[in-house]
Prior knowledge:
Layout: E1 8-9, E2 12-13, H1 15-22, H2 26-34, E3 42-43, E4 49-50, H3 54-67, H4 72-79, H5 85-116, H6 120-130, H7 134-149, H8 156-164, H9 175-188, H10 191-211, H11 216-235, H12 246-259, H13 266-279, H14 282-295, H15 302-318
Antiparallel strand pairs: 1-2, 3-4
Helix pairs in contact: 5-6, 5-9, 7-10, 9-14, 11-12, 11-15, 13-15
Amino acid sequence: MDDDTSYASGSLHSIGELARLTGLTVRTIRFWSDTGVVPPTDRTPAGYRLYGPDALARLGLVRTLRELGVGLPVIRQVLEREITVAEVAAVHAEALDVQIRTLRLRQAVLRAVAGRGSTPEEMELMHKLATLSDQERRRLINEFIDSAFEGLDVDPGFLASMRSGMPELPEDPSQEQLDAWVELAELVQDEGFRAGIRRAAEDQTRVWKESGRPDGERTKRVAQAIKERSEAARQAGIAPDSPEARPYLDELAAVCAEISDREDGPEFRAWLLERLETGNDPRYGKYWRLIAVINGWALPDMEPATEWFTAAVRASVRG
C-alpha cells in the first residue's frame, strides 16, 4: 500500500510531511524506512506510516552518514547504539585516506601521461605501476637488482646497500614523491638501463679478478677523496680541462692508482677513464635521486664530483 503524503496529526508526521520538512524525496524516505533505519512510529487506520518527532533527527543523521559514504547496515548499527558515530567516523576516515592516496597515484599517472604524450599501452602500464602496493614495489626493485647483478661476483656490501634503498612511499605522499615513483618504476624496467648497470658490474668484476677486490674501507676513502677534492675545485670555479685542475687531478689519480695496485701515468689514466665512463651511467645517479625523493632522504651529492673528476681525467688522456 502506498504511503499517504499529506496526513499529519499532532506530533506525528506522514512521509509526505517529512519530505517537505527535510527536502528529501518521498521515495528516499520510504526506502530508508523499508530498510529499518527510520522505522515508522505508528500507522493510520488505513495503514499509512506515521513518524514521531525523532524521525527528523534520524533522517538528518542518516543523510549525513550516507553523504560520507557510510552504508545503511552500518547506519542501522549506529542508530541502534551497537557502534558509536566516533567509531564509524574513524573507520571511514581511514578508508578515505586510502581513497585519497589512490587518487593521488592516479593523478600522478595522468600528469605523466599528459606530459609525455604516452600511448594507450604506456598509460595502462603506468597505471599499474602507480597502484602497486608497498610489497609489490619492493618486489619490483628486487627483481631489477636480481636481473642486473645475478651471477656476478658483486661486492656483498654493494648489493646490501642496493637492497636497503627500497622506495617507501609515506602515508601521505607529495605529488613530487608520486611522480618520482612513477619515473623510478619506468626506469628500473628500462632494458637499456638494466644492460648499462650490468655492463658496469661486469667490468668491475673483471677488474677485481685482475687485481683483487679492494678493501671496502679503502674504497670509501677514495670516494670521499673524489668528493672532497672535486668539490673544492668546483667551488673554486676550476674547469676540469683547465691547467688549474692539474693538482687536483694528480692527487686523485694517485689515490685511485694506489687502490688499484697500479702506477699513475698515461696508460693508467686511459684505463681509469674507461672504468669511469663504463661505470658511471648518469641514470644510476638518477636512480638514487628518485629513491631519495620518494623516501624523503637528503639528495645524494656524489654525482657532480664524479662528473668533474671524469671530465678532468678525459681532458688529461686526450691532451
